[in-house]
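Saturday, quiet lab. Running sequence design on the structure tokens for the scaffold JK sent over.
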């Protein structure tokens, strides 16, 4: 999870002892935490395995647990709807059960998502906006959200849910649209690719910097009472605007390179998301620092630097 590494950095900066939970896999992927690897402890665990969660909490004795784990790629949730539900929905119950059994005084953060708003009932979206998810992923996140609220109300667990709008960075996976575009623009600029194939160019998102958002998550757990908060910038941009900014940053016109490919269209789309983050501003004193254009420029520069030693296409 890309922003888990920002959270780990942030908590280390606050003097926390940080544990991370990792799922066993035959190909270990840890480049996002390489720079802090010696300062954190990794525990084996899996949201599908109740015992492993209980053991992880017994071993680490945490004061705070942040659940950022999920099957988080929206298109995959149509191909693997049941598995997505296991991780993204029931996984939250398993972790909350582990908290309840091991130490109900542990403060719990659940990564809820703007995808819960889906086919939006009002604009901008706030904590009271009704949910209308549009993908198996969104549906699973609604379950995760309400089970968090329910454990707060049933067992007085200090459980908070952060409804985060899209949070991006140069650590974002290449399959998500911001990174796909910044990587694509950099590749085309360097002669490593000739075109970039995308899906719906008209969908609009409230894109912010992941590094800013982890502070809001931490602040939620430092309040007197647990609650839910919308976290976003309050500004929205289309995928087209994203392309325009990324390509013009390297002196190119996106219209010459971006091709629409049906393969990247979704069976049901979320057309427009824009946060009303005023509660986070008022109660947590939080506001985002990095603007959209700065974020995209930062990501393009990172991809240019990463790719510049590769050989151009013939
Ligand atoms: P999203 O992020 O679904 O909003 O969820 P994503 O970057 O995948 O898509 C954003 C929008 O861009 C459109 N799009 C494309 N998307 C991808 N991935 N690839 C393409 O080629 C492409 N072309 C157009 C999409 O249709 C969509 O409208 C992210 C995830 O991180 C979730 O886990 C998280 O909960 C939410 O953000 C907040």
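Result came back. Writing it out in full:
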């Amino acid at each position: 999870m890309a922003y888990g590494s920002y959270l780990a950095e942030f908590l280390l900066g606050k003097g926390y002892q940080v544990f991370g939970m990792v799922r066993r896999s035959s190909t270990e992927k840890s480049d996002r935490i390489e720079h802090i690897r010696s300062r954190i402890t990794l525990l084996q665990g899996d949201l599908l395995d109740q015992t492993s969660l209980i053991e992880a909490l017994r071993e680490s004795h945490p004061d705070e647990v942040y659940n950022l784990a999920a099957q988080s790629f929206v298109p995959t949730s149509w191909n693997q709807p049941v598995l997505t539900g296991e991780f993204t929905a029931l996984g939250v119950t398993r972790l909350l059960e582990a908290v309840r059994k091991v130490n109900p005084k542990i403060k719990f953060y659940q990564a809820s998502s703007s995808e819960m708003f889906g086919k939006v009932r009002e604009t901008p979206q706030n904590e009271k906006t009704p949910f209308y998810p549009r993908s198996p992923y969104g549906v699973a996140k609604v379950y995760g959200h309400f089970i968090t609220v329910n454990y707060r109300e049933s067992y007085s667990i200090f459980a908070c849910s952060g409804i985060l709008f899209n949070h991006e960075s140069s650590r974002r996976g290449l399959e998500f649209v911001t990174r796909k575009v910044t990587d694509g623009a950099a590749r085309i600029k360097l002669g490593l690719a000739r075109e970039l194939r995308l899906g719906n160019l008209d969908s609009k998102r409230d894109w912010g910097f992941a590094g800013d958002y982890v502070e809001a998550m931490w602040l939620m757990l430092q309040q007197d009472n647990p609650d839910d908060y919308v976290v976003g910038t309050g500004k929205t941009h289309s995928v087209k605007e994203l392309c325009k900014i990324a390509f013009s940053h390297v002196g190119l016109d996106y219209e010459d390179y971006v091709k629409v490919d049906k393969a990247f269209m979704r069976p049901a789309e979320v057309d427009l998301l824009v946060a009303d983050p005023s509660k986070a501003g008022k109660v947590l004193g939080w506001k985002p620092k990095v603007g959209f254009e700065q974020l995209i420029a930062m990501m393009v520069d990172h991809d240019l630097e990463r790719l510049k030693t590769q050989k151009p296409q013939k």
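Notes for JK: Residues 73 and 176 are 8 Å apart (CA to CA). The mean pLDDT is 97. Ask whether to fix the surface positions before the next round.
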